[in-house]
Request: fold
Amino acid sequence: MTQQPEILHYAVTVVGKDRPGIVAAITEGLFNLGCNIADSSCTMLAGEFAMILIVSLKRPFSKSRLIEELKPVCDRIGMTLGVRTLHADEIARQETDGEICMISVYGADQPGIVYRVTRELAARSINITDLNTKLIGTAEEPVYVLMLEVALPEGETPEGVEHTLAALKKELNIEIGVRIITPVAF
Amino acid sequence: MPVQPILRYPHPVLKKLCHRVEKIDRSIRDLIQDLVDTMHEGPGSVGVAASQIGVTLRVCVVDVSKNRHGKENNHGLLLMINPEITARSGSATMREGCMSVPDYTGDVDRSTTITLQFTLPDGTLQEITSSGFEAVAIQHEMDHLDGILFLDRVTSIKTGLFRRKNY
Reply:
C-alpha cells in the first residue's frame, strides 16, 4: 500500500466583486484552520478580485473541512469559492532548462488573438507560466495587449519563436516581440 | 578554506550595515580571496559581497566577463574595498535573483550607468564608470553592504504592466 503524504495540499480559488477586506476575511479562515499559504497569486481584473492559493495542512484533514470553514466567509462577502485537492505530482517544483521569455503581443482588437498565439506556442511545446491580457485604447480604436511569460523547451530560441509567430503577425497585423527575461542570480 | 558557504536569508548578517575597512591588512586580502573563490564556485555567479559570507565589512567582488550579458562590456575582475557610487544615470529593469534568497526572482530598477570609487587591495584609489549588466551587478553587490536585498527593491514579481490601473 502506498504511504499517504503527511501534508495535504489544496488549490483554493476565490472570485468576486472587489472591496477592501477580502484577503483578510479569507486568510482569517485559513489561519483558523491552521493552513499554510504555500503559493498564491491574487489580482484585480476589471472590478473583480481573484485569489488563487495553494494551501497546505497536516493530516488529518479533508476538503469538506476546508469548505465548511471558507464557504460561510465567502457567502458573507459575496465571493465564489472553489477547492481542489492536489496530488503529490502537482505540488512538485516546476523547473526548466530552457530560457524564460516575455512575449508581448499587441494590436488592433480582433477575435482570436489569444487563441491563435497560444496555439502556435502549444504546438512547439512552449509552456506558458504567466499571462495577462488587457483591452486598452478607445471605443473607436480598441487595442488588445497580451503579455505572456513562457518557458522555452531546451534548444528553442527567442528567434525561433519569433519566426514561428511571423506569419501570424502578418496575418493579424499585430506586433509580436520575444525577449529573454531569464533571471540572473547575483 | 577559501570557498565559503553563502549565507541565506533570514541569516541576520544579511540585513546588517557593513563597516568601512579602515586598514587593508592580510585579513582583508584573505577576505577578498575568499570572495573571489566563492564567486567562482557558484554556478554562473557574477559577484559576492562580504556580508554574504558572514563578514560585515564593505568589501565585494564582481566579474561579469564570463557572463553572456556582460562579456562585451566589463572591467574584468573587480576587487572593491569601500566602494561608493559618485554619479548615476539612466534606469532599466532587470529580473534579478540572489544566491542568498534562493527560489525567488523579481524585477528591479537599477541605474544604467554608474561612476564609482573604491580602494584596491594594494591601497590605491580607483574610479571607474560602469554601464549595462556590470553596473547592475555592482549595484546589487553594493546593496548587500547596506543590508539591502533585492527583495527590498522589487517593483514587480511578474509583469509590471497593468497592475495599478484604475477603473
Remarks:
- Chain B touches chain A through 27 residues (CB under 8 Å).
- Residues 159-167 of chain B have pLDDT under 50 and may be disordered.
